[in-house]
Design brief:
globular; 48% helix; alpha+beta; four-stranded mixed β-sheet; 4 helices
Length: 147
């Protein structure tokens, strides 16, 4: 009887260790995307991450217009925004993405002056895409923009 109780306790301990490791492991391998539900000023922002070995290895943050054209590729928009805001999409999208990559979703994301609206949206998108990665849900998460 003592042997059976010891075996049951050992199995319960092992099961609790495996369960807690699963909770701690966090991110499941795969590609995950979150995007805002509607266009704002002609653009719909999105984040796509790649998780390998439980770590984020790639982050793409950008926006697209209704035809699928990427905001960071729009040179006219870049020039206008640079002169009025002091930053532009190709700069702040890379900055926010690299902060998420470096912090692995654990740290805060510092705002860039001139891109505070995108900062708020980025944080909402990052939270959604990280939740997708924790669940292993490769469907696109649709979120409300923060602005």
């Amino acid at each position: 009887m003592k042997r059976i109780i010891t075996m049951i306790l050992s199995l319960l301990l092992l099961a609790s260790l495996l369960t807690s490791c699963g909770d701690q492991a966090g991110l499941q391998d795969g590609y995950y995307t979150a995007q805002v539900s509607e266009f704002s000023h002609g653009w719909k922002e999105f984040i796509t991450i790649l998780v390998k070995g439980g770590s984020i290895v790639s982050v793409e943050y950008n926006a697209e217009n209704a035809s699928g054209f990427i905001k960071s590729w729009d040179n006219a928009y870049m020039q206008t925004m640079l002169h009025t805001n002091g930053t532009y999409p190709n700069e702040y999208t890379r900055n926010y993405a690299s902060q998420l990559l470096e912090g692995q979703g654990e740290g805060g994301i510092d705002a860039i002056s001139g891109a505070s609206s995108s900062h708020g949206t980025f944080q909402v998108l990052a939270q959604a895409v990280l939740e997708q990665a924790r669940k292993g849900d490769s469907g696109i998460a649709i979120v409300e923009a923060s602005h």
